[in-house]
Design a protein that fits this description.
This protein is an alpha/beta fold. The chain contains ten helices and 14 strands. 33% of the residues lie in helices and 22% in strands. The strands form four sheets. Strands 1-2-5-6-9-10-11-12 form an eight-stranded parallel β-barrel, surrounded by seven helices. Bound molecules: (5S)-5-amino-3-OXO-hexanoic acid and zinc ion.
Amino acid sequence: MAPTIITCALTGAQQGKEANPALPEQPDEIIAQGLDAWRAGAAILHLHARDGNGKASSDVEIFRRIVEGLRGAGCEAVLNLSTGGAVAGLPLDERIRLVPVLQPEIASFSVGGGSMLGRYDRGADAWVGDRFVQLFTSHGEMEHVARTFRDNRTRPELEVYHSGMLNNIAALQERGVLDDPLLVNFVMGISGECTKATVKNLLFMVEGLPAGAEWLVSAIGASNHFRMLGAVFAMGGHIRVGLEDNVYYARGELAASNGQVVEKAVRILRELGGEPATPEETRRILNLSGGTTT
Ligand code: KMH
Ligand code: ZN
């Protein structure tokens, strides 16, 4: 049985300490919890940057501080820097700058035009969180960014929010701007125009992948987060956990840290007969050869 890569998504670009005081926002917190998560079994750390007020930031120097802090403390995990933050209104060109400047081994790449998020709250008789998140404005722009990733030997983690985005992946692959193996992150369970976190939907999406692609699931929200792990493992996928996606450890219990959540994922994985991949195994599985943040 091949080992399973565990990614820990430490902080995200949206909810902050108001959702869980243990959610790390500042570089020192992110570094400390990143080290704990790596030691607990996370082979990839998915990182966002936040400014002094805890708001999502695309400032490359904040990312640099986090990366250097982790590497300086001996962290060997693969670092996956987020170019996300569109949801926080950060412009594309600013979000992509970290790729040529920091040349991470992996960076996220939301491979589509965007989606409407939010839900209708019957109690409040109103739409809540109602917003359109714009990602790319054209296939040409998407191709240009894919070339930027490839030129800097940064592997894109292709964020897929719904099945139409699989067409974009196939088209970019046809254009020859995506290196193998593809790394696809199925983001499931966000309220609004995003795929519901069900096994049936996951099977449909996985069957739509190009041959040889490696994939993981970001199951968003407490009701989805740990529930989907079993299906992901049974289908040969990789796992993502962390306070970016879910601030709860268990029903009604806020997570104490990202390390605690990774420990739970490792326990579940081992109970199911799996084993977390080491960072070296991860680099081999994903054929990572680039990046200056190794
Ligand atoms: N925030 C998650 C829903 C990114 O950072 O670019 C997906 C994500 C994407 O982590
Ligand atoms: Zn993210």
